[in-house]
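The pair is listed for reference:
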Amino acid sequence: MDTILIIIAGFVMLLGIFGSFLPVLPGPLTSWLGLLVLHFTDAIPIDKTFLIITFVIAIFIWILDYIIPAIGTKRFGGSKYGMIGTTIGLIVGLIAPIPGGIIIGPFIGALIGELINKNDTKTATRAAFGSFIGFLTSTFIKFVVAIIYLGLFIGILWDYREVLF
């Protein structure tokens, strides 16, 4: 049973890394679920304090994920349309078979969102840039936390490798 739980936890950890880029999946929270699943194995004792601290960090990053793009958009004169356009552009950029779609999509989406909001091209470009920078910053932070959680996961497995294998 422990092996199955470890495999599930590893899968959830990897899903958390993908969730750092996908707007529908909270990356660090998903990675934290992998640590929680690992906690339920009999072979690996994980301290509850460790789980609580990592959970609080994951919740904090999840909240920041909504605040950072808004700050970037507002700082560069953007609107809610720019933020919505960024999200739609990201989804299209992920699905569309274009090189660099995950980078180009959010910027183009923000630009279109700002143009729909009746901004002139200069203002729309500036706001799209701000929205894009906010998106990149938020995504980078989520990715780093998900990678750290994966590192903790691998470290825990490494410490208990004699028991597991």
Observations:
- Helices lie at 2-19, 27-39, 48-75, 80-95, 101-116, 121-159, 161-164.
- The mean pLDDT is 85.
- The radius of gyration is 19 Å.
- Residues 81 and 113 are 5 Å apart (CA to CA).
